[in-house]
Amino acid sequence: MKSSLNGQSILLLGVDGLFVLAGALSGTFLNVYLWKTKPDFAMIGWFTFSQQLFLGLTFWIAGKWVKEHNKMNALRVGTALTGLFYLIVLWAGKDTVHFIWPLGLLLGAALGLFWLAFNVVYFEVTDSSNRDLFNGWTGLIGSATGIVGPWLSGWIISTMHGERGYRFIFTVSLVIYGIGVVLSFFLKKREVSGVYSWSEPLKQIRNKGNPWRQAVPGLAFQGIREGVFAFLINLLVYIATTNEMKLGQFSLITSLVALISYWAAGKWFKKRNRSLGMIAGSICLLLVILPLLWKVNYGTLLFLGIGTSIFVPLYTIPMVSSVFDLMGTSEHSVDLRVELVVLRELSLMVGRIVGILIFIGVLSIHESQTTITWLMIVLGATPIFNWIVMRRLLGHETKAA
Fold it and tell me: Which residue ranges run through the membrane (predicted)?
């Protein structure tokens, strides 16, 4: 089977690119905006917790809509609700910190609808022969938008001196989400089949010998690191520099490096190298954190960011591709693709919530930079445990149904 992308998969990459670009413009500075109003790690943690909680629940609840009705509408509603989130932030201004939970739930629901529909359509427009290529392009586009978006946002916020700049960036993101909704109408309506099984995720875990019994804990370990690092790194860069332009510069440099590494991984990464690539990437992702033990400043954080950008494709591409390959091993698993996408996200959600609760719990006992650094090292070691539970799946040859 030829390893190439068709028109629908390219269009899906375009919709994803717009969604990620809007998030790169505003999402990078959203937590900084909250921090400047109220410098409180626990508040940022609970905001992220509420997002992840409702993101996972939305995956499970909306699974019925996506499987039995029009999944493209779920993707459009998710994009529109994300725009609505930023509209409310624009309206609330600095009072946003008083609405952490409802806003977190809204953003979680929006992201849940979008990524559930996206992941199901992604599975349908790719197969095991071109999935690594698609994932490489996804990372490439994410890195490219990460180069332009945060740097531009940081420059605009610094030039417009704070609040005015933030409001301008949030408005631009709102417009981009609108364009994404329009572009999504060019994606073909996907066929629906079968009845949604609410209990399928639990059934998969209960079945002895089921490969998902390895994938689920692996995904949870992946989520533990993601849940905290997704918001903490950018926040630490801002705290260390108190300069939005520096944070934009940080994102530009790390995203440029990630663009090159994802391009290389997408071009040369092969299925047979998944296990070796993942363990090498996991170890290196831990090693690049260690300089923070000596000093936490822009230089050591940039070293962490560049190192992460270089090695993260080795870790994430095998993980994503192997899990999605499990959805195509038989006609039965293909029929259950929506439920299996839900199972994947619920597993990640559990891990992210565990990581965030550990972060909040530890800092509630003792909050210091040393504590945060050691916490990052402990959570940063979870990719190694991920590889341990996933290594058999990574080397397993799957045949597409």
Answer: 12-35, 41-62, 74-93, 99-122, 134-156, 168-187, 223-241, 247-264, 276-294, 300-326, 346-365, 371-389
Work out the end-to-end distance of the chain between its first and last CA atoms, rounded to an integer number of angstroms.
13
DSSP per-residue string spanning 111-148: HHHHHHHHHHHHHHH--TTTHHHHHHHHHHHHHHHHHH
pLDDT at 123 over 80: no
Q: Tokens 């030829």, residue?
A: 2
d(CA 400, CA 93): 50
Q: Are 11 and 187 spatial neighbours (Cβ–Cβ below 8 Å)? A: yes
Q: What share of the chain is helix, strand, coil (3-state, %, to 5)?
A: 85, 0, 15
What is the pLDDT averaged over residues 222-232? 94
> Residue 120 above 60 pLDDT?
yes
Alpha-carbon distance values, 290 to 92, 131, 222 (Å): 39, 33, 19
- What are 26-48's pLDDT values in tens digits? 988 999 999 999 999 999 999 99
Give the span between the Cα atoms of 385 and 387, in whole angstroms: 5
What's the confidence (pLDDT) of residue 377?
97
DSSP assignment of 265-301: HHHH--GGGHHHHHHHHHHHHHHTTGGGGT--SHHHH
CA dist list (Å): 152 to 30, 190, 243, 318: 15, 36, 14, 32
Per the structure block, which two tokens stand in for 175? Answer: 């417009």
pLDDT band at 400 (very low <50, low <70, confident <90, very high): very low
pLDDT score, position 132: 72
Rounded-to-integer distance, Cα 320 and Cα 258, Å: 17
**Can you tell me the distance from the alpha carbon of 144 to that of 385, in angstroms, rounded to the nearest whole number?**
30
Computed on alpha carbons and rounded to an integer, the radius of gyration of the chain in Å comes to 20
Q: Please give the full DSSP string across 287-349, using - where no structure is assigned.
A: HTTGGGGT--SHHHHHHHHHHHHHHHHHHHHHHHHHHHHHTTSSHHHHHTHHHHHHHHHHHHH
d(CA 371, CA 369): 5
**SS3 of 202-237:** HHHHHCCCCCHHHHHHHHHHHHHHHHHHHHHHHHHH
Question: CB atoms < 10 A from the CB of 266, how many?
Answer: 19
Dihedral angle at the C-alpha atoms of 287, 293, 299, 303, nearest 10 degrees?
10
Structure tokens at 242: 């108190």
